[in-house]
Write a structure and sequence with these properties.
- There is one protein chain.
- The protein has about 70 residues and is mainly alpha-helical.
- The chain has 2 helices and no strands.
- The longest helix has about 40 residues, at about 30-70.
- It starts with a helix and ends in a 5-residue tail after the last helix.
Length: about 70
């Protein structure tokens, strides 16, 4: 959850900068669209970071299993 909140804060700042420099002309309610877009971006980034962590853990487990099952010759 801590990583998600950090990611959400960063995406909130990036969305604010985008909307400040012209994006506000596209949307009517500035704060609602800012929080919505930042939330979507934060969720996507958090999912990808979590997926990367899981892949690294699986790689470590596979290496451990391969080292244990080396053929004895």
């Amino acid at each position: 959850m801590k990583n998600f909140l950090g990611t959400f804060a960063i995406s909130l700042i990036l969305c604010y900068v985008f909307l400040f420099f012209g994006g506000i002309l596209i949307f009517e309610n500035f704060w609602a669209i800012l929080i919505f877009v930042a939330l979507i971006i934060a969720i996507l980034i958090t999912v990808f970071v979590h997926q990367e962590t899981k892949i690294e853990e699986l790689e470590a487990r596979i290496k451990t299993l391969e080292s244990k099952s080396e053929p004895k010759e």
